[in-house]
Structure prediction request, 210 residues.
Amino acid sequence: MMRWNIGPVALIGVVLLFAGCKTIPTQTPSETVATTIITDPAPYSLRTPANDFNILGRIAIQDQDQSFSGSFRWRHSEKIDEILLFTPLGQAVAEITKDSDGVRLITAKLEAYYAENVERLTEEILGWRLPLDGLQYWIQGTHSPITSAEKDLGQTNQLIAIRQDGWNVHYARFAAEKSRSIPMPKQFHLFYENERLKIRVIVDDWNAEY
Prediction:
């Protein structure tokens, strides 16, 4: 399992430091929706795991009470997810690990918390939800096969948005990656609970070395 050394940076201090960050737009420019595809949950035997990836990126979160922005590292495989959140200055904020044993979150104060659900744990400790189960698919421009979903496509069949599990995912930018056969999302926005929670994700490197 990957290990990071987390310095003594308080999460509350991070939230206050970035309380004045630029707000996340509630709408993202996109082409006109040409087709909306509705998919039902796939049978258990046909549920395809999300492809493995090692990525570096940036993230900004805003809700009614707080704001945060920084960078992240995310290593995903079928067996484990390992995510590290940083401030823009490179200080570690939290380490999130999900595997067959459940979910573990370690804060910058080296306080460890355990749960079975990522969204509930991150909301309780960080103050905002991280939809890891869906995000492992959405970040690759597809929907999770576990629950029903709606996908909006443009005139050229380019993905515009996904609506799933109470989240609205709007794609702003794609880019070609040498190791992948289709353009991959480079920037997208997530909205939850009538836009009370807004998350912007920018992927800088799809093949990061750790």
Notes: The chain has one domain: 11-205. Helices lie at 11-17, 118-125, 132-138. The mean pLDDT is 85.
